[in-house]
Amino acid sequence: MLTLLLIIGAIFIGIPLIKLVFKLILGVLGITIGLVSLPLLIVGGLIILPIVIIFGILTQLLPILIVGGLIYMGYRYMTNREYY
What are the protein's UniProt keywords (predicted)? Predict the structure, then answer.
């Protein structure tokens, strides 16, 4: 009977301890992965993000640039036929 109680007690104590150890291992892995990926996030924020923002602005301005360029070419063509 005492052996059965000891086994049950060990199970009730052991399972939460195993869960705690796994949580600690996963926590350490999470911190390690976070520290490893931090430089990548900094590089992405400082280098890639401005490029994306600049190209986003340029794509918004692209129709205006095309229409403006066509108007300018038409103006140059109308005012100076020898230009072409």
Answer: Membrane, Transmembrane, Transmembrane helix
Alpha carbons 19 and 23: distance in angstroms, whole number: 6
CA dist 73 and 69 (Å) reads 6
| Residue 59, CB-side half-sphere exposure with 13 Å CA sphere | 6
Distance from C-alpha of 2 to C-alpha of 59, rounded to nearest angstrom = 77
Residue type at 26? L
pTM exceeding the 0.85 threshold for the entire prediction: no
CA distance 20 to 25: 9
CA distance 41 to 47: 10
pLDDT, tens digit, for every residue of 19-56? 888 888 888 888 888 888 888 888 878 888 888 889 98
Residue type, 16: P
